[in-house]
Write a structure and sequence with these properties.
Shape: elongated
Distance between the termini: 66 Å
Strand content: 5-15%
Structural class: alpha+beta
Radius of gyration: 30 Å
Helix content: 40-55%
Strand order of the largest sheet: 1-2-3-4-5
Length: 309
C-alpha cells in the first residue's frame, strides 16, 4: 500500500493562474465586469454578485464558483479597481492576508506585499508616483519586546494571551514581579493611593505585609466594613482599594499571595479584574432629555451609550 504524499497548498497567485489557464474566457469575462465599474473599491458582496450575474453561460458561472477562484472570492475582503488592474485582498483564515493583482488586458498575475497593496490602493486618490515624498513612520521599536500571538485562535483573546505571557514570565523569573509591585504602588485616583503606600518598597516587604494583613482580617467578621480595619491596613502598607469589607479584602490578598508564590494566568486575570480601575461612567443619549435617576438599562432608554473611564 502506497504511503500518502503531502501536497503543497498552492499560493494565491497560483490559484488565479490555474483558473486563467483552465477557464481563461470565463475569468476574463468576470474581471472585465469589475473593470467596467470604473476606478474604486468593490466590496465582497459586489464581487460575488458579479459572479452570479455572468450572462449567457450557467456552466461558466459554475466552473468559476466551484473552482479555486471561487474560493478566492469567498475569502475576499475587498477589490481595488484601477483599470486595467484588479487587486484583491483575501483573508483565507483569521490573521492571514494575501494580495494579488491581475492585469485584465495582459492577463498577467502578480502577488503583492502589504506595502505594495497599500501603495496601489492609495493610487485611487493620487495616481502620481510620489514614492520619494512619502512619509514613513517606523513603530517597530515600540513593539520590539511586546508579545505577539502566533496562532489565529488567539485572536479575540488578547487579555488571556497577555495573562499567560505575564504569568509565565513571573513563574520563570521572580524579578518579573517588580512591575506588578510598581503598578500597585503607583495606582492612584485623584492623587490618593489605592493599593499600596510607601511602607512597602519591595517584594519581600509585600509578602510580609500580606501575611500580617491576612492574620488581622481573618479574625474579623466577614462583613466588617472597611472603616473598622482601615487604620490597621494603612499602618501595614495597604490602602482602600482592596475591598469594602473584610472578606473582600481578604480574597484579594489571597489572590496576590498566590500570584507571588506560583503565578498562573487565571489567578492573575481574577486579581487584576478586582483592582479598581473604573471611576466614572458617562451616559450619552441620542434621545435628548432622559431621567437622571434609576433609569439605566430601562426599556425606554435603549438609546443610551455608556462609556466607562
Amino acid at each position: 500500500m502506497a504511503n500518502p504524499k503531502l501536497s503543497r497548498i498552492p499560493s494565491l497567485r497560483e490559484r488565479v493562474e490555474d483558473t486563467l489557464s483552465a477557464y481563461r474566457n470565463d475569468l476574463v469575462s468576470l474581471l472585465s465586469r469589475y473593470v467596467a465599474q470604473g476606478k474604486g473599491i468593490l466590496q465582497p458582496h459586489t464581487l460575488i454578485d458579479e459572479l452570479d450575474n455572468i450572462i449567457g453561460d450557467e456552466q461558466a458561472r459554475l466552473r468559476l464558483s466551484d473552482g479555486p477562484f471561487g474560493e478566492v472570492l469567498k475569502s475576499a475582503q475587498e477589490a481595488i479597481v484601477l483599470p486595467p488592474y484588479v487587486a484583491i485582498a483575501v483573508r483565507p483564515r483569521p490573521g492571514v492576508w494575501e494580495y494579488v493583482r491581475v492585469n485584465v488586458y495582459e492577463l498577467s498575475v502578480e502577488q503583492l506585499s502589504v506595502s505594495e497593496y497599500l501603495h496601489f490602493k492609495e493610487a485611487l486618490a493620487d495616481e502620481e508616483d510620489n514614492k520619494y515624498f512619502v512619509l514613513g513612520l517606523d513603530f517597530e521599536p515600540f513593539n520590539a519586546s511586546f508579545p505577539r500571538p502566533s496562532r489565529s485562535s488567539s485572536i479575540g483573546n488578547g487579555v488571556q494571551f497577555l495573562n499567560r505571557h505575564l504569568s509565565s514570565n513571573m513563574f520563570r523569573n521572580k524579578d518579573s514581579l517588580e512591575p506588578l509591585l510598581n503598578f500597585l504602588r503607583a495606582h492612584k485616583y485623584k492623587g490618593h493611593g489605592l493599593m499600596l503606600n510607601d511602607r512597602i518598597q519591595s517584594i519581600p516587604q509585600l509578602q510580609a505585609a500580606l501575611a500580617k494583613a491576612e492574620d488581622h482580617l481573618s479574625k474579623l467578621p466577614p462583613d466588617a466594613p472597611y472603616s473598622e480595619f482601615e487604620y490597621v491596613l494603612q499602618t501595614i502598607g495597604f490602602e482602600r482599594g482592596w475591598g469594602d469589607t473584610a472578606i473582600h479584602a481578604l480574597e484579594m490578598m489571597h489572590l496576590l499571595l498566590d500570584i507571588l508564590q506560583a503565578p498562573d494566568p487565571s489567578t492573575l486575570e481574577t486579581f487584576l479584574g478586582k483592582v479598581p480601575m473604573v471611576f466614572n461612567v458617562i451616559i450619552l443619549s441620542p434621545h435628548g432629555y432622559f431621567g437622571q435617576a434609576n433609569v439605566l438599562g430601562l426599556p425606554d432608554t435603549g438609546g443610551q451609550v455608556c462609556i466607562k473611564c
